[in-house]
């Protein structure tokens, strides 16, 4: 070992044979410096690797979901009858997108209405009226989570109807079929969002069709996809009716939370112009 002070080569021992410098301290400092030097790049490499893995996973899920949507749009019901729990993640993504598109469309419609009102009343109330915009958080974010709960509750009611039909199916499987059949109506809601951004009134028609599909068509199709002549449980008609009743009870309870922000904002801006 070479002495860090005089560079004399020592065959062993803790101290330098020539100048008496402690060789152990120098070795420890050298080891610590080496460890610190090598730790930095390793940590950086690990961080980059984790980030790259996250991006690759996100890209893979996105590609898989787009492929899933394209297959479902070709034959929604036929595809749903072959779906099991393996499509649960895609179903959850569909539920989240549908729950986002509904309040997002409402936001752009409300923004357009306020803009038109501002243009009309700008001459009377000044340019400040034209700059009024609806709050994104209360119009989109809060209802978004409410719609997620609402859609999941409908899928839960559908699962209950399937189980009452004496069908051996898990919630994950039923929810996957529910989300699969919701894909066409989610696509309609995406078009409705684009129409609302362009101030095309046909967006309301697509909204109504999508909500009717969510409440009436999707549960009935999911229930009927499990029915067979060998099942002696609850009939499809009664199972669907039970789902509708529970859905409308839920809608009565949650309706204020889902749509009150839109109505309250319209009332608030209308009051401004009535001053």
Strand content: under 5%
Largest sheet at a glance? Answer: none
Order of helices and strands: HHHHHHHH
Radius of gyration: 31 Å
Class based on secondary structure composition and strand pairing: mainly alpha
Q: What coarse outline follows from CA principal-axis ratios?
A: elongated
The separation of the N and C termini measures: 90 Å
Q: Specify the helix fraction band.
A: over 70%
Number of helices: 8
Kindly state the mean pLDDT as a whole number?
80
Give the strand tally: 0
Query: How many domains, as an integer?
Result: 1
Low-confidence stretches: 32-39
Keywords, separated by commas or semicolons:
275 residues, mainly alpha
Task: Please give a structural write-up.
The longest helix is centred in the N-terminal third of the chain and has 52 residues, at 23-74. With 275 residues, the protein is an all-alpha fold. The protein has one domain (75-273). Residues 32-39 have low confidence and may be disordered. It is elongated and about 100 Å long. The N and C termini lie far apart (90 Å). Helix 3 (88-125) packs parallel to helix 6 (183-197) and helix 6 packs antiparallel against helix 7 (202-226). The chain contains eight helices and no strands.
């Amino acid at each position: 070992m070479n002495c860090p002070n005089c560079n004399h080569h020592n065959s062993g021992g803790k101290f330098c044979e020539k100048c008496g410098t402690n060789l152990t301290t120098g070795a420890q400092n050298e080891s610590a410096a080496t460890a610190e030097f090598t730790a930095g790049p390793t940590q950086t490499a690990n961080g980059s690797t984790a980030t790259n893995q996250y991006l690759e996973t996100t890209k893979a899920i996105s590609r898989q979901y787009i492929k899933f949507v394209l297959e479902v749009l070709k034959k929604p019901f036929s595809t749903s009858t072959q779906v099991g729990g393996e499509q649960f993640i895609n179903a959850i993504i569909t539920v989240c997108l549908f729950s986002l598109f509904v309040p997002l469309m409402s936001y752009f419609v409300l923004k357009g209405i306020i803009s038109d009102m501002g243009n009309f009343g700008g001459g009377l109330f000044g340019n400040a009226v034209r700059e009024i915009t609806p709050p994104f958080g209360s119009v989109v974010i809060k209802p978004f989570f409410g719609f997620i709960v609402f859609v999941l509750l409908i899928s839960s009611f559908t699962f209950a109807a399937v189980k009452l039909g004496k069908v051996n199916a898990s919630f994950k499987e039923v929810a996957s079929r529910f989300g699969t059949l919701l894909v066409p109506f989610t696509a309609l809601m995406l078009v409705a969002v684009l129409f609302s951004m362009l101030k095309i009134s046909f967006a309301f028609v697509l909204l109504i069709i999508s909500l009717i599909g969510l409440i009436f068509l999707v549960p009935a199709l999911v229930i009927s996809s499990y029915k067979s002549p060998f099942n002696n449980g609850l009939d499809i008609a009664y199972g669907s009716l039970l789902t509708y009743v529970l859905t409308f009870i839920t809608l009565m309870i949650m309706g204020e939370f889902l749509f009150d922000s839109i109505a309250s904002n319209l009332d608030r801006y209308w009051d401004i112009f009535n001053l």
